[in-house]
Design a protein that fits this description.
It contains 19 helices and 38 strands. With 709 residues, the protein is α+β, with helices and mostly antiparallel strands.
Length: 709
């Protein structure tokens, strides 16, 4: 691979646009720039993206032709909904008889509140027969006269019979309006939720289309030949054409970029990622090497949009301390940024001379208990960052690093008011702020059943050092600040994989139907530029909801990096032993491929079966999978079908809850094929055979099975 090739990630924030260049081979950061986000320019945010790219090329000495991958994340869709800056949607309901009753009720979406006092602009028209072109034209004419700027067609059961929605849009095409069909947004049942998701998508469609065209034209004019990708809200990226079809996928993509950076750059396989800014901390989970996603809530209603499960706490690096009755009563939610005050720890010693503590009301309606320092240099806010610097928790070179002695001088007047020493006062501040974060972290660990003994806490964002080190210390969890934490989001954009998720409701799904959903997801990411050889697909079959879900991910080029450092046998053994909480001498190598090694320990229990704890470690020494009790067996591609049939047959359990095949993972080449989402033995074996397809007969295969109780 040409080592001059680079991957570029651009994160368009509300205030600043950050861009980074990452070596496509080593994944090391080569350069980073920050420019103001150009909301009010004639070309919109596209101007800031190109400006950031130009500065990045100048800083790194690279040319646009050196870019092998270019992606950007944007808050534009989120902001459009938050600010109510959306298009008027013309909704065409389809159906006769009982169906008409249900579709006519969809007109109530015009009551959805975007912002206080501002509702979603929606006009409704009904068509009984979707093949009646004249009726469709009359409906579109009425909608246009009422101000419609974009059209949505919706019909009951269109996920099974999409012909009606397609016929309406075909008839409406001559009008030249942007259009979407509800079945194109999601293939899940539920007319109301499916249509609501499609309507919100349509409301931001014209604005996002305009931006996409400007960005595309600007990037092409700049000489970039790599296809432009856009960050999704589930931690992956999609092609620009896909964004034009489903712009709603970019909503809530800001936090997704950060966790993608933690996943790809920090190689987190199990843990919690905190992205801390000046005012708040976004908390998300990585479980078994994958980001945790769920159906997002938009405009106060659940949707069929699969987005990162991110929970936000109003505590950040700039959060101000609150005091009363000689004690710290809380931290935040107001920050120094909102109050318009500088951080006390970044003042000079001269500016802090003669400092005294006062309390203020940052905004009208706030309690007047936020601590500030009135000193020779003016008024300063006492923040989480001040306390972290005073305790030496902020590493040198960190975005939030300040002189510890100055920080201690900033905390000293507060300590005097509290009647304690500087160290204790700073600790009390961090305790109050981090306690709010820890409550949410503990809840997410419970929700996703993370092993607290092996999960790590990784901090990103400019304010990471104000929260993550103290959280790790107080919780007893392993914690670290991500490298280049202040630009972890654009790094995540640069390193993100192409991703697509396909969901189908298929009662009693057959092997062929499950494989068809898998193939559809795989084709979708390849069509968006992913290298076919490296695509991984995770399939889940939920027997309770009859949902078949396939999540495909892949890189736009095969990642065969020759890293400057690969972990040796000793380092990998040490990583496995640390995760297993065992003496390295008690840890055995159970199996391995060229890319992964499987380690394990035995725990003999009286009158109960022996437990075999297992860890899968990659070539970089990162634990990629944890299993409390698993069976490991090595075979070849040629022998795998027979071996897997035997293992699955022996490990499948039967009971009142139905059939439960084991959780199966296959180590193949450089991949871990996760088949754990399938409970039925026959589809499980069919998926396993599909993973083995087109591989050499002699290639080794390692099976890791966990029996489900």
């Amino acid at each position: 691979m040409d080592t001059s090739r680079i991957r570029v990630g651009i994160d368009v924030g509300g205030t600043f646009t950050d861009a980074v260049a990452v070596d496509a081979t080593t994944l090391e950061l080569l350069g980073q720039v920050k420019v103001p986000t150009s909301h009010h320019h004639a070309d919109g945010v596209a101007h800031g993206i190109v400006e950031a790219l130009d500065r990045l090329m100048e800083q790194t000495g690279r040319a646009p032709a050196d870019i092998s991958f270019l992606a950007h994340g944007t808050t534009q869709a989120t902001n459009a909904l938050l600010e109510g800056d959306v298009a008027t949607v013309g909704l065409i309901g389809i159906g006769t008889g009982p169906s008409a009753v249900f579709t006519r009720r969809l007109a109530s979406f015009g009551k959805l509140e975007l912002t206080p006092g501002k509702r979603l602009p929606l006009v409704y028209a009904h068509v009984a027969d979707p093949d009646d072109t004249a009726a469709v034209h009359r409906a579109v004419d009425r909608l246009k006269e009422a101000g419609a700027q974009v059209l949505v067609a919706s019909q009951p059961f269109s996920v099974d019979r999409p012909e009606g929605e397609r016929a309406v849009l075909d008839a409406a095409r001559p009008y030249g309006l942007p259009m979407t069909a509800a079945h194109e947004i999601t293939s899940l049942y539920g007319l109301h939720k499916r249509t609501r998701t499609a309507v919100v998508n349509a409301a931001i469609l014209p604005r996002m289309l305009a931006t996409a065209d400007l960005v595309d034209a600007s990037i092409t004019k700049a000489g970039v030949t790599a296809p432009l990708m856009v960050m999704r809200c589930d931690g992956g990226v999609m092609a620009l054409d896909e964004m034009r079809r489903r712009p709603l996928l970019t909503v809530l993509s800001g936090p997704a970029a950060g966790v993608a950076g933690a996943l790809m750059r920090e190689r987190v396989s199990e843990g919690v990622f905190l992205e801390t800014g000046g005012t708040s901390t976004d908390i998300s989970v990585v479980r078994r090497g994958k980001v945790a996603v769920r159906h997002a809530t938009i405009l106060g209603k659940t949707s069929y949009l699969n987005a990162l499960d991110v929970r936000t706490v109003g505590v950040g690096g700039g959060s101000m301390v609150r005091i009363g009755d000689g004690r710290v009563t809380g931290v935040g939610p107001r920050s120094a940024h909102i109050a318009g005050l500088p951080y006390a720890c970044f003042a000079s010693p001269a500016e802090l001379r003669d400092a005294t503590v006062d309390t203020v009301r940052p905004m009208d309606g706030d309690p007047a208990d936020y601590a500030v320092l009135d000193a020779a240099g003016g008024r300063f806010a006492v923040t989480m960052t001040c306390a972290a610097n005073a305790l030496g928790r902020v590493p040198e070179g960190d975005f939030a690093h300040g002189d510890p002695e100055t920080a201690r001088a900033a905390i000293a007047p507060l300590a005097a008011v509290l009647g304690t020493d500087i160290t204790t006062a700073a600790t009390l501040v961090l305790d109050a702020g981090v306690a709010q974060v820890r409550t949410v972290v503990d809840a997410m660990i419970r929700d996703y059943r993370l092993d607290k003994d092996t999960a790590v806490v990784v901090g990103g964002g400019g304010g990471a050092a104000s929260v993550t080190p103290h959280l790790a210390l107080s919780s007893g969890m392993e914690g670290r600040i991500a490298r280049h934490n202040e630009v972890i989001s654009p790094i995540g954009v640069a390193l993100a994989l192409v991703r697509e998720q396909v969901e189908r409701i298929v009662p009693g799904a057959s092997q062929e139907q499950i494989l068809a959903v898998r193939a559809e997801a795989e084709r979708a990411v390849v069509a968006q530029g992913a290298a076919a050889e490296g695509v991984e697909v995770e399939v889940t079959v939920d027997p309770q909801t009859s949902t078949v879900r396939a999540v495909a991910t892949g890189a736009t080029e095969l990642r065969t990096q020759d890293r400057a450092h690969r972990a040796d046998d000793t380092e990998r053994l040490r990583a496995a032993a640390a995760s297993l909480k065992a003496d390295p001498a008690a840890v055995r190598v159970l199996a391995g491929t060229a890319a992964h090694t499987v380690y394990g320990t035995e725990t003999r229990r009286r009158l109960r079966p022996t437990r075999h704890a297992v860890r899968i470690v990659d070539m970089d020494g990162v634990v990629r999978h944890h299993a409390a009790d698993a069976h490991v067996e090595t075979t070849t591609v040629a022998g795998a079908p027979e071996v897997l049939a035997r293992l699955v047959g022996e490990s499948t359990s039967y009971g009142d809850g139905g059939v439960r095949a084991p959780a199966l993972r296959l180590l193949l080449g450089s991949r871990i094929a996760d088949l754990s989402g399938v409970l039925d033995p026959q589809p499980l074996l069919a998926l396993a055979r599909s993973e083995l397809r087109a591989r050499a007969a002699h290639e080794p295969v390692v099976a890791v099975l966990e029996v489900r109780s």
